[in-house]
Write a structure and sequence with these properties.
This protein has helices at about 15-25, 55-65, 75-80, 85-105, 135-150, 175-185, 200-210, 230-240, 255, 270-275, 285-295, and strands at about 5-10, 30-35, 45, 65-70, 110-115, 155-160, 165, 190, 195, 200, 220, 230, 250. Helix 2 (about 55-65) runs parallel beside helix 4. The protein is globular and about 55 Å long. Helix 1 links the parallel strand 1 (about 5-10) and strand 2 (about 30-35). The chain has two domains: about 5-165 and about 200-220, Rossmann fold, CATH 3.40.50.720; about 165-195 and about 225-295, UDP-galactose 4-epimerase, domain 1 (Alpha-Beta Complex), CATH 3.90.25. It is of the alpha/beta class. The protein has a seven-stranded parallel β-sheet, sandwiched between helices. The chain has a two-stranded parallel ribbon with strand order 7-10. The protein has a two-stranded parallel ribbon with strand order 8-13. It is about 40% helix and about 15% strand.
Length: about 300
């Protein structure tokens, strides 16, 4: 039975919100979730191992999606470092399989990528900037981008930054944990020297859906309008929650340690998106947090 939209990674924080947005807007959309992961609160989902080439191809042939939003990935930098084979199979090989099927069948592919394909030394980055990842995770996502470009077809690579907000699935996220820590007065150690252009999950979902329904191809950045450190992000969240003196401790990238370098500034330029759609992809964090605080005080 044919469907309009297929969302891989629908059990993740972004995929769950995208699926809920599409279903809520009346679209014919289904999701794929991992064999052992959580299922989102909205939408019909199928458990699929993206590394199972036979099953993936059979399901694609059965559902015949018109638009595939490929959001599934190993997204943890540490997990990708510790288990590079799984990261390769999930982030690159599975993307290759989906891109080949989409090109062969004339489907549209929206391949979700990341700001971590850059090294953080030359922000803000536009879509023409050369990729230069410094982590294994970033390299797998840059390799996946190259695969999508090489295969061609009706494809769009969408780079997302750090995401925040409330997922539409019951799973722990860093941001929700940070909100809990704020409420409980627990100390939060946050970087003051690592910058992103974060976007709220709902804003990201609406922007990706808009891009998916368009004819845009190539690469597109979808990010928030502000360059913020992680410490600044949680200060904004605390104000929206009415917490006057949050228990925050400044930290630096150098203190974090780790086997791989942490990029200093991964800010993205969204000029192309604004030119295509005549509005920015996301709201300021203060505006988005006012809405989040009403739902999750």
């Amino acid at each position: 039975m044919a469907t309009d939209w297929l969302i891989t990674g629908a059990g993740g924080q972004f995929g769950s919100v995208l699926l809920a947005h599409l279903v809520g807007a009346g679209h014919d959309a289904v999701g794929w979730v991992s064999p052992r992961g959580p299922t989102p609160r909205a939408g019909v989902c199928e458990r699929v191992d993206l590394c199972d080439a036979v099953r993936v191809t059979a399901l694609l042939d059965t559902t015949q999606p018109r638009v595939i939003v490929h959001a599934a990935a190993v997204t943890s930098v540490q997990v990708a470092f510790d288990d590079p084979d799984t990261a390769q199979r999930t982030n690159v090989d599975a993307t290759t399989r989906l891109a080949e099927w989409a090109a062969r069948r004339g489907a549209r592919l929206i391949s979700i990528s990341t700001d971590m394909v850059f090294d953080g030394s030359a922000a803000p980055y536009d879509e023409l900037a050369a990729t230069c990842p410094v982590s294994r995770y970033g390299r797998t996502k840059a390799d996946a981008e190259e695969v999508v470009r090489a295969i061609g077809g009706d494809s769009l690579i969408v780079r997302l930054p750090l995401l925040y907000g409330l997922p539409a699935v019951d799973r722990p996220t860093t941001f929700v944990g940070q909100l809990a820590a704020l409420r409980e007065g627990r100390v939060l150690r946050l970087f003051t020297d690592e910058f992103r252009t974060p976007i709220e999950l709902g804003d990201a979902a609406r922007a990706v859906a808009e891009a998916g329904a368009s004819t845009a191809t190539g690469v597109l950045h979808i990010a928030g309008p502000q360059r913020l450190s992680r410490n600044e992000m949680i200060e904004i969240a605390a104000r929206a929650m009415g917490i006057e003196r949050p228990n925050l401790a400044a930290s630096s990238r150098a203190e974090a340690g780790g086997p791989e370098p942490r990029p200093g500034d991964l800010s993205l330029s969204c000029a192309r998106y604004e030119s295509l759609f005549n509005h920015p992809p996301g709201r300021s964090m203060a505006e988005a947090m006012r809405q989040i605080a009403k739902i999750h005080p």
